[in-house]
């Protein structure tokens, strides 16, 4: 989640626990510091963009290591502000500020290695976008109310703000589960077989959801579902995931690492003799936030690994947000890929062949 949300969450839980035992600003300060602390791992350089991406949210976000850190932070706070607040109270407040950080990150799709050193698999639910004002706003309002009011009234302001953000997070999980059920139903109804299904919130909201399904024939489909849509079926557009290129690059560390980190939601493409890998979880066709050059053809036409390089992706934030808003309320709005590609990928029900396979159309850039 973004730094402002993490700071506000850490500050809010600290104020909740410390109550009237210390000044609101003091509780909020230490909670905010602990709520921000895990993300300082972004300052570490692991050598290349894929390592930097996949080692982020690792040990610094481990529930085990953060629990070990919490008494040290509590001791530092108590040393700085005297013995008025019992050590146990500081410990509980700052442990919660640290502990809630990775759980909030887990609600995003990125991938958080919560259970290191026992289990390193990244976990990401995807029910919240990395920035969502409707989650953050109640926390900020509650903290401002706590700062302006006094005594029990201030504590109640903060408690209400924290409760509001928690309810919104719970709503996002329920909404995601609903869309996932509808997406699976529509995929099966349209005869599209799938091995993995991803449902994620689109930017800044929990009304419009993006659906990605990986098919057994080495392709994937993308669709969108708004909670404001009617009862009609979802539209799915099919795309080539580069199965042949994936096989040619099998065993290459960068490719295998990203396949593991993205839980199989990757696509590869060749462009002018270079191989590019895209993380399908973040972005939408045809632009993805994390795209890397991972290999290049040598003089003999064989693929050779290259140091990963982040590919420059065009930033069209205003256009993308405008599309999200329009699609949120109108299911007839075409996907971004249909506007930006020379030829729209046919609807899944049009392109689907025997047993729901999505044959590749070479005249459409390899898309189904």
Write a concise keyword list for the protein shown above.
368 residues; alpha+beta; 4-stranded antiparallel β-sheet; 10 strands; 15% strand; disordered C terminus
Task: Compile the SSE list and pairings.
Layout: H1 3-18, H2 24-36, H3 49-55, H4 63-81, H5 87-106, H6 133-148, H7 151-189, E1 196-201, E2 208-214, E3 219-226, E4 236-240, H8 243-248, H9 253-261, E5 266-271, E6 274-279, E7 283-284, E8 287-288, E9 291-297, E10 303-310, H10 317-329, H11 336-340, H12 348-351
Helix pairs in contact: 1-2, 1-5, 1-6, 1-7, 2-5, 4-5, 6-7
Polypeptide structure, described:
The protein has 368 residues and is of the alpha+beta class. The chain folds into 2 domains: 3-172, no CATH class; 190-364, no CATH class. The chain has helices at residues 3-18, 24-36, 49-55, 63-81, 87-106, 133-148, 151-189, 243-248, 253-261, 317-329, 336-340, 348-351; strands at 196-201, 208-214, 219-226, 236-240, 266-271, 274-279, 283-284, 287-288, 291-297, 303-310. The strands form 3 sheets. The chain has a 4-stranded antiparallel beta sheet. A 4-stranded antiparallel beta sheet has the order 5-6-9-10. A hairpin with a 6-residue loop joins strand 1 and strand 2. It is globular.
């Amino acid at each position: 989640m973004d730094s402002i949300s993490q700071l506000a969450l850490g500050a809010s839980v600290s104020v909740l626990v410390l109550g009237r035992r210390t000044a609101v600003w003091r509780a909020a300060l230490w909670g905010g510091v602990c709520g921000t602390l895990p993300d300082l791992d972004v300052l570490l350089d692991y050598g290349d963009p894929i390592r930097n991406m996949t080692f982020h949210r690792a040990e610094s976000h481990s529930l085990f290591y953060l629990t070990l850190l919490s008494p040290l932070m509590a001791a530092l706070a108590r040393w700085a502000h005297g013995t008025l607040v019992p050590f146990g109270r500081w410990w509980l407040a700052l442990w919660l500020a640290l502990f809630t950080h990775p759980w909030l990150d887990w609600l995003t799709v990125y991938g958080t290695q919560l259970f290191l050193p026992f289990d390193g698999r990244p976990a990401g639910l995807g029910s919240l976008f990395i920035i969502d004002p409707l989650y953050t706003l109640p926390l900020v309002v509650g903290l401002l109310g706590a700062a302006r009011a006094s005594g029990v009234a201030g504590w109640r302001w903060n408690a209400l703000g924290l409760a509001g953000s928690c309810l919104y997070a719970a709503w996002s999980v329920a909404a995601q589960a609903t869309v996932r059920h509808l997406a699976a139903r529509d995929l099966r109804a349209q005869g599209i077989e799938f091995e993995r299904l991803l449902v994620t919130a689109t930017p800044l909201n929990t009304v419009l959801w993006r659906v990605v399904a990986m098919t057994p024939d080495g392709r994937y489909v993308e669709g969108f579902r708004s909670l404001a849509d009617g009862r009609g079926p979802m539209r799915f557009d099919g795309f080539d995931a580069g199965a042949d290129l994936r096989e040619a690059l099998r065993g290459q560390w960068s490719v295998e690492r990203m396949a593991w980190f993205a839980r199989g939601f990757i696509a590869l493409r060749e462009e002018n003799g270079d191989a590019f890998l895209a993380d399908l979880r973040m972005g939408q066709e045809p632009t993805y936030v994390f795209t890397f050059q991972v290999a290049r053809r040598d003089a003999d036409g064989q693929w050779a690994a290259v140091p990963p390089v982040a590919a420059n992706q065009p930033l069209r934030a205003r256009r993308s947000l405008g599309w999200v808003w329009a699609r949120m309320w109108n299911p007839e709005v075409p996907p971004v890929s249909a506007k930006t590609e020379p030829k729209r990928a046919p609807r899944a029900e049009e392109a689907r062949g025997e047993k729901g396979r999505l044959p590749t159309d070479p005249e459409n850039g390899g898309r189904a």
